[in-house]
Write a structure and sequence with these properties.
Length: 242
């Protein structure tokens, strides 16, 4: 819409790619709180976020380096699911090793299998002396009595919704103006069309809702005064509010 309206924008790339997917997992047990808590871990390669959708589904937003995102998406879905689980559980030194394993396998043209990766993960868990009964272990039973540290971590991902895994480059972008002019007159930008930011703090949606609130106020004011809601007369109020 911004391009159609002829509105210019400026910004820059973060050299970061967001991997997104819909994740399936076991429901929380009766001994735990419902799946209503979002989890986030800050890694040297970028933050990974686990966002609840329903008792058995959650959304992933994993900001990481472009070459690693490409290798993860080129791997078997089971590999991606396992890497999401360990990204919240293993120490960074082992994550870095597993990332290199996946990158080396992808560059060789023979992506690592889920079985081989799980063997590597099991060895890493033993090397860090992770208790198999702890929530930090991928071998923990998600259906029985939960361990004491269960609420510190998101549920273990069992599978990924087919076709939901994707990626997109992260950028900062801001339109020169929110109101179209000339051929793009009677056009107003809101949300990502007006301003795109890193999803780290989850502010993109909040800013978009703020845009809609400001726009509705401008339209309401125009109607009260008998004005044309498509004219740019009320544009200063829109820009000021957003």
């Amino acid at each position: 819409m911004r391009a159609y309206a002829g509105i210019q924008s400026y910004g820059w790339a973060y050299d970061t790619t967001a991997v997104v997917a819909t994740l399936f997992h076991h429901p929380r047990t009766s001994f735990q709180a419902p799946n209503t808590v979002a989890y986030q871990r800050f890694l040297p390669t970028g933050p990974i976020a686990f966002l609840p959708l329903s008792p058995t589904a959650s959304s992933l937003v994993w900001s990481t380096k472009p070459h690693l995102a490409k290798a993860l998406l080129a791997s078997d879905p089971g590999v991606l699911a396992s890497m999401i689980n360990v990204a919240f559980r293993l120490p960074e030194v082992s994550l870095r090793y597993l990332h290199n394993v996946i990158l080396d396998a992808a560059s060789s043209g023979a992506p690592i299998t889920t079985e081989k990766l799980q063997q590597e993960i099991a060895w890493r868990e033993r090397s860090h002396s992770i208790d198999s009964r702890s929530a930090y272990s991928l071998a923990a039973d998600p259906t029985g009595v939960p361990p004491a540290d269960a609420d510190l971590l998101p549920p273990l991902v069992t599978s990924i919704q087919p076709g939901s895994a994707a990626s997109f480059p992260l950028r900062f972008n801001h339109a020169d103006e929110y109101i179209g002019d000339g051929p793009g007159a009677r056009t107003v930008l809101v949300g990502d069309a007006a301003h795109t930011i890193h999803p780290l703090a989850g502010q993109g949606l909040n800013m978009g809702l703020g845009d809609v609130e400001a726009l509705s106020q401008c339209i309401h004011q125009a109607l009260l005064t008998g004005g044309d809601i498509g004219q740019s007369t009320y544009a200063p109020a829109l820009v000021y509010n957003t």
